[in-house]
Design goal:
The structure is a single chain. The chain is α/β, with parallel strands linked by helices and about 575 residues long. The chain has three domains: about 5-205, Trna Endonuclease, Chain: A, domain 1, CATH 3.40.1350; about 225-405, P-loop containing nucleotide triphosphate hydrolases (Rossmann fold), CATH 3.40.50; about 410-570, 3-Layer(aba) Sandwich (Rossmann fold), CATH 3.40.50.300. It has 19 helices and 23 strands. The strands form five sheets. Strands 1-2-3-4-8-9 form a six-stranded mixed β-sheet, with helices on both faces. Strands 12-11-13-14-10-15 form a six-stranded parallel β-sheet. Strands 18-23-22-19-21-20 form a six-stranded parallel β-sheet, with helices on both faces. The chain is elongated, with a radius of gyration of 29 Å. The model has no long low-confidence stretch (mean pLDDT about 90).
């Protein structure tokens, strides 16, 4: 139900406004709407001052300024409006709401803290006459801007207001192709209300409210995700690809849960140990096994891993020993689900998985999830996307995801500003409170100072437990920062413990955090010397930036930034 600022005094002598209030306040469709009542205009475009009956902010739709007339009788003669049984001459309510709307727009537009995309918000105005059956047609004002008592008896007030916003959008689109329903998002509504009601009750989201909002925004399946889930019901083998943020891990877990509920022996395999820990903490009781690929190999091989084990040990010695032990242990699964497949994609891996899966890869049930283009951080296969088809000897059934349901539009733009990637088909989320930023540094002391400023600015909006610092190296600027600011240290993130039980801001390497996500991401130590080559820098930056749910801050040397720009132009 709608929030009102200020709370309406029901002892008011204006019955039409009481009716308006009750209809919105008790309507479930107005959940999370914000309504200003009796808003005093100290600045008005056509008079010294004025008052607006209602300003309704509808999330992801627009803003509508409403003039309410309580009279039971309204007449129009020669363009003049007459009210009540006495036919008292009064103001044109359509012009009142129009002038009030533009007065309000001017107040917000000229404010230094206005939303960044304020010009894209859909604005309209309307007249509501709860007690009068009133029809008025004029070339100046469209019929959809009027809701009389007859209409109120046929449909809800919320439906009328939503329709008015949509009609205004249709009207404006030919001349304002930049207009956007989503510009009126909860963050921008909050900024507008803070401008209009600076001493009112704070409406900035609490961390819990933000967590709830983000969860709701990212948990609803997109049409293409539903297509994958439907395909998984009728196809034993699926090869799902897509860039970061398109929901591959979410789909993998959903399919694993569905298959295990049918008493199938299901295993979910990923590459990253910390992703496994998170998945296990959230879904460990869902009836399927959760393993990292190398963790599974080690369980089956039953050999000690040397302290300085190299790639040859993991990819040859450990893999071959696990393969040899498989037949002896009679370990098999009915359904195989592999996340982050690009990180283990080679023929040796497939030979092992073939023996692990009942029916083998050609006859068994499996689902592979991969991002071959951007997140291949560990494998140097020339064309990892072809490994499966080459092994099977025929094309696998592939589905490609392209709708970003994790990042905000600003974060996606930030990725594309720094890294050359194929564009997403759609971005579902809304922008956060703070836009992404880039800060350059010449040495670690300057970077440490920049990091302090970034953390201070972020904590004006976000809780310290909502901030994660990512680096390509384990010993970088965070060590320097912690020595200089011992009272507000950045703490290493413990992936095996709930974030709420730890104290932020947190730190992790980029590779350790691959496959996961966090509200705000600060990326540090971005210098070419901290990467293998430009390709490695591109891949790790893409992974790091795409972890952000709300905003990102990038700390990079000027030389590295120049190299990124040159590489992505070429």
């Amino acid at each position: 139900m709608a929030y009102f600022l200020p709370a309406l005094n029901l002892d008011t002598e204006v019955p039409g406004e009481i009716e308006f209030f009750k209809r919105l306040k008790n309507d479930p469709a107005t959940k999370n709407w914000w309504v200003l009542h009796s808003y005093f205009l100290s600045q008005h475009i056509n008079q010294s001052q004025g008052e607006i009956d209602f300003v309704v902010f509808i999330p992801n739709r627009g803003v509508i300024v409403v003039e309410v007339k309580s009279h039971k009788k309204i007449q129009v003669r020669n363009g003049d409006f007459y009210y009540g049984v006495q036919n008292a001459l009064g103001k044109n309510p359509f012009k009142q709401s129009y002038d009030n709307m533009w007065s309000l727009i001017e107040i917000i537009k000229d404010h230094e803290n206005k939303p960044r995309n304020f010009s894209k918000i859909v604005w309209t105005h309307a007249v509501v006459t709860p007690s009068a059956k009133f029809s008025y047609e004029s070339p100046e004002y469209q019929q959809w801007k009027l809701c009389d008592s007859n209409q109120l008896n046929k449909k809800s007030l919320s439906t009328f207001l939503l329709t008015a916003i949509e009609e205004q959008l249709k009207k404006d689109l030919p001349n304002r192709n930049y207009i956007d329903n989503n510009a009126c998002n909860p963050t921008n509504i909050a900024k507008c209300l803070e401008i209009l009601k600076p001493e009112g009750e704070s409406i900035i989201e609490t961390p819990d409210e933000r967590e709830s909002r983000i969860l709701k925004e990212i948990s609803e399946f997109t049409p293409e995700q539903n297509l994958v889930l439907q395909a998984s019901q009728f196809n034993e083998q699926l090869h799902i690809t897509g860039p970061a943020g398109t929901g591959k891990t979410t789909l993998a877990i959903q399919i694993a849960s569905e298959k295990s509920s049918k008493n199938e022996r299901v295993i979910y395999i990923c590459y990253n140990e910390n992703l496994k820990s998170y998945i296990n903490s959230q879904y460990g009781g869902n009836g399927f096994d959760i393993k990292t690929f190398h963790g599974l190999l080690n369980e089956i091989a039953e050999i000690d891993i040397p302290p300085n084990a190299d790639d040859f040990f993991f990819n040859e010695t450990l893999l071959n020993k696990a393969y040899d032990n498989l037949s002896q242990k009679e370990i098999y699964y009915d359904h195989l689900i592999v996340d982050e497949f690009q990180d283990i994609a080679n023929e040796g891996t497939l030979i092992f998985l073939d023996r692990l899966l009942s029916g083998g890869l050609k006859g068994g049930s499996w689902k592979l999830f991969a991002d071959y283009k951007n997140q291949n951080l560990y494998r140097e296969s020339i064309r990892p996307e072809n490994v499966v088809d080459d092994y099977l000897g025929l094309p696998s059934f592939k589905l490609e995801l392209g709708v970003n349901c994790r990042n905000t539009p600003s974060i996606v733009d930030f990725i594309q500003d720094h890294i050359e990637i194929d564009p997403y088909r759609e971005v579902r989320r809304l922008d956060g409170d703070i836009p992404p930023s880039t800060k350059t540094y010449k040495d670690n002391q300057e970077q440490s100072n920049n990091l302090k400023n970034t953390l201070d600015n972020l904590q004006k909006v976000y809780d310290k437990n909502e901030i994660l610092v990512l680096s390509p190296i384990t010993n970088g600027v965070v060590e320097i920062y912690n020595q200089e600011h011992s009272g507000s240290k950045i703490n290493k993130l413990n992936f095996r413990s709930e974030v709420s039980k730890q104290e932020g801001p947190f730190f992790s390497t980029i590779k350790s955090f691959k496959g996961l996500e966090f509200h705000t991401i600060v990326i540090v130590d971005v210098d070419i010397d901290n990467f293998i080559d430009i390709r490695d820098m591109n891949s790790q930056l893409y992974t790091a930036i795409s972890r952000g749910l709300e905003t990102v801050s990038l700390h990079i040397t000027k030389d590295a930034l120049k190299l990124l720009q040159e590489n992505n132009v070429n």
